[in-house]
Amino acid sequence: PVTNAEVTAAMGRVLHRPTLFTAPAPALRIALGDFAEDVLGSQRVLPGRLLDAGFSFAFPGIDAAIRAALR
Hints:
The chain has helices spanning 4-15, 25-32, 36-40, 48-52, 62-69. The chain is mainly α and 71 residues long. It has one domain. The relative contact order is 0.17.
């Protein structure tokens, strides 16, 4: 699991853009309306059963996952 700050920093690295700060919650609430709570809410969820079963993720790191999503 990664935090909003970690995702923002990774996006900046992948896109070669500066990331000085994360999006402020009030701005997201205005822009996204009811959907903002889905974006702002958080739960630290770990895929324990998958990991215990030996599952390996195609993109175990956030940078590689973002690069793949942008292709």
